[in-house]
Amino acid sequence: MAYTKEQAWELLTQYNKGEFHLKHANTVADVMRWYAEKLGYGDEADFWEIVGLLHDLDFEMYPDEHCIKSQEIMRENGLDERLIRATASHGYGLHFDGLPEPQHEMEKVLFATDELTGLIGAVALMRPSKSVSDLEVKSVKKKYKDKKFAAGCSREVIERGAEMLGWDLDTLIEQTILAMRASSHVE
């Protein structure tokens, strides 16, 4: 069954009410759409966007079952197994054994950028402009090295994601900044 962004948003807001979680979902959705276009998957951009929107479906209500409970919720709602697998794979090696390893380039992008969007957003808020519009890789790298800054954003996951994609860290950061600049949900 084809699933629209509107249907995904309706499902997301049944399980997420917090402004932070909803903004993060929209940001990651926009970043995923941007990457789909950039990497030659433009015909799948809607799907990539929905994966980004729903990737943390269960996190607000079920943080201890993150990436597990979402699979159950999605199946109960008749969502495509490809969507379920893609969203679950972003928790690979992090939360529970048995989550699928990212295989498709889209899954690897989600794995790599989920944490990174949070880190980049935190760096942007520290700038006078409070925006990604003038943010440079070197500014992100400087804060990246400070493990106390945005401590909830796992550097290990970001690095593993870059490695999965076969990219260096600077490329991943640069491309994700560009993706976030294109988002209407990021200042």
Class inferred from helices and paired strands: mainly alpha
Q: Kindly state the mean pLDDT as a whole number?
A: 94
Task: Using the CA coordinates, give the radius of gyration.
Answer: 15 Å
Number of helical regions: 9
Q: Spans of 5+ residues with little confidence (pLDDT < 50)?
A: none
Number of domains: 1
Could you give a short account of the major beta sheet? none
- In whole angstroms, the N-to-C terminal distance is 34 Å
What is the count of β-strands?
0
Order of helices and strands: HHHHHHHHH
Oligomer classification: single chain
Gross geometry = globular
Q: Which percent bin holds the helix content?
A: 55-70%
Query: Roughly what fraction of the amino acids lie in strands?
Result: under 5%
List the helices and strands and how they pair.
Blueprint (H helix, E strand, L loop, with lengths): L4 H11 L3 H20 L6 H10 L14 H8 L4 H9 L15 H22 L10 H9 L9 H11 L3 H13 L6
Helix pairs in contact: 1-3, 2-3, 2-6, 2-9, 3-5, 4-5, 6-8, 6-9
Please provide a written account of the structure:
By secondary structure, the chain is mainly alpha-helical. It has one domain. It is built from 9 helices and no strands. Helix 2 crosses helix 6 (105-126), helix 3 (45-54) packs across helix 5 (81-89) and helix 6 packs across helix 9. It is globular, with a radius of gyration of 15 Å. The mean pLDDT is 94.
